[in-house]
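Let us practice reading a record.
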Amino acid sequence: MILNLTKKKYLSRSPLYAISYILRMRGMIGRSFRGADFDAMVFSHCNTIHTMFMSVRIDVVFVTSDNIICGLKKALPPWMPFVRCSKAFTTLELPEGTIDLTGTEIGDIVDLCGVLTAEAEQKLKDNKLEVETVISFKESNK
């Protein structure tokens, strides 16, 4: 699960982490989020993407190594040769409209590997989830 901790909203319930060479190369080519068993693609160590050969518009969220959103692209159309955010460490490809639906903004903090208990998930749905602390990616590796 990918959570926007700042807005207390989830961006993705079942992301697909593109860790293999084949997954990274294919990305969303020939796919759509509709009917898929995933609702986001996550590319770590990635600050540049393309939408060549794709058939759907996507929202793109660029995230720093500190898990802070540093760039957004809404409704990115197919056939863009490259889209880049130099500060990004991870790139999320999401269904079109996700950014607006969740109110996601530059500067928001995200959890890219979130797991919620049933109780916490209900609180998130009810917008009553309290976020007490956030440890950045860099701090957790010290």
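A brief commentary: The chain has one domain: 2-140.
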